[in-house]
Amino acid sequence: xxxxxxxxGHPMSxxxxxxxxxxxxxxxxxxxxxxxxxxxxxxxxxxxxxxxGLTSAAGEASTGWNQPVGGLIDRSGGANAMAPYCFAxxxxxxYGQPRLSGKLGGVGRxxxxxxxxxxxxxxxxxxxxxxxxxxxxxxxxWYFVWxxxxxxxxxxxxxxxxxxLSIGTMPLLQADGPGSGNRLVLxxxxxxxxxxHTLARRHTxxxxxxxxxxxxxxxxxxxxxxxxxxxxxxxxxxxxxILFLHxxxxxxxxxxxxHEAACWPRALTAIEIGQVLTYSxxxxxxxxxxxxxxxxxxxxxxxxxxxxxxxxxxxxxxAWHLGALSYGVVATTGNSTSYTMQSGHGIYAVANGNYPGSxxxxxxxxxxxxxxxxxxxxxxx
Length: 381
Fold this sequence. Notes:
Strand content: 25-35%
Helix content: 10-25%
Number of helices: 5
Low-confidence stretches: 25-33, 364-381
Shape: globular
Distance between the termini: 39 Å
Largest sheet: 7 strands, antiparallel
């Protein structure tokens, strides 16, 4: 525990003689040193929580965050590197992004465009590992961590389900799209099992899937056991690649951040599952916050905040410092009834002057209305 300070030597007060304390979890470096390699039979382990788990676009060791990523190192000691996957020509290059879950980062590609809510990720970028890494007919265990900052955007089927894990085009793990029940579904189809019903729009989750040879699947979501012996369909054996955050079809990306995954070609014991669950607490999981900045002003605000992109950069920076998963800006100009900034208007009312409005007192339109419009594409600049 550490004492939170409002300035050097002055603790933050909570009232009633209480002061604020901050719990600092084990650092990512310490957690990674503990790792998953102590569990026998680890056949693949990919960790994007720190940049030293990534390779450059040229296949060399990464030198830091915000750099093009050519793949993820297999920390199990094998040669099964994780590679970017696109249904179309593989021209989209992911980047390593810091501080997506506490101090830990992830991999993805920002593709924010007009009429999308920020951040929007690439609609055709996922990740793959060789299908031969595990024999689906026998026992296996999978561990996976991801973050969804927003609903899918610009995919042509934004309202449909989001595939998080698949074998070729066969989905293993799928999240509902907007308005479809907020479920997390295992093996979508006739044998499906809903393992959650409150999956938030913005979230970070970890999942552990364990199957005995020929048996059902046990599932742990964010450390809690949510399924015991769930039925599984016939899973294709052989060579289809295992896809993360993509369904294997055109523009089929989940538009999520990849954090970490690992697999074992056996069913881990109860004690070993407990070790994986303890290790997974390095990630901050569950529903996540978003930062939304309301920009009011006149011509200088339009020029220096809106047109030059400073407002969006500010929102992104505030989200980075606060650990929010998404960010956006409410800033509108040119509409005489609902603007938040307008050329020729003052920050405050000027008597006998040429500035008719006051953005400190009565910006046009209700602030609450503009904030409620944030989830509508086009309202976030």
